[in-house]
Target: NAD(+) diphosphatase
Amino acid sequence: MTTWTGRTTDLTVSLTEHSGIDRAAHHRLDEAWLAAAWSHPTTRVFVVSGGQALIDDTPEGTTELVTTPAFEAPVTETHRYFLGTDDDGVSYFALQKDSLPGRMDQSARPAGLREAGLLLSPRDAGLMVHAVALENWQRLHRFCSRCGERTVIAAAGHIRRCPACGAEHYPRTDPAVIMLVTDEHDRALLGRQVHWPEGRFSTLAGFVEPGESIEQSVRREVFEEAGVTVGEVEYIASQPWPFPSSLMLGFMARATSPDITVDGEEIEEARWFSRDDLAAAFESGEVLPPFGISIAARLIELWYGKPLPRNVT
Ligand SMILES: [Zn+2]
Model:
């Protein structure tokens, strides 16, 4: 089998780059330290709401998270998440609120991770993905899974505690596998999900089930969705995907049988593409180039051997 890991040096996956932020988890239970950090003049705060934060374009042509000093931050009825510190000792917090604050300057705009992840620096993207993941988990885990009582936020956003039974609940992450399958002719298997717009094809993907290794999960998902059997499986990279709480584990996989039988429920159509097939399909508009931050586009690019055309729609 082709070994892909030697070719991945240029593979940058959004939301996974080194952010330069130390999460400093040992401070999360230290209320005195957190209070001092919050009131420190260099501390920066941003609001996260419904998976969105405010971003703004700089005169230098970059895009950044809109942050404020803590003393300007709206603190009432908020959840405060401590996200970490940078090399200069600056502390970062996110405030979860029901809506984003209004801004006097009109250039700042709300954005979700799918947009912001393409625009922000690794530092800001890392801060935002941490905050969005915490917000999603907090929103969906307000009650104790052991006794049903309402839980309360603790550890600067990283624990929910049950006052009735004492249980501590930690943020959950759901592993999912995403894989580009190739065959003996070096063609790639791409599929169309039932609810996707016309022309959209991508890698197959699915959730890891209880009691299953990630390699088993890759083989099961490909067989369930496309009827293709898979032999060797090679891990490439991972990507936090808090929509609402996944961790995407990216693989290249090698088919041992080329015959396709789609399940018809999740996957409507699957096809083998050679590089020339795919280039021609992009050219004719039959297949839409993948767009966005997803590791799916990076896996396809790794096989394709050059940057994919950008989908500007
Ligand atoms: Zn409980």
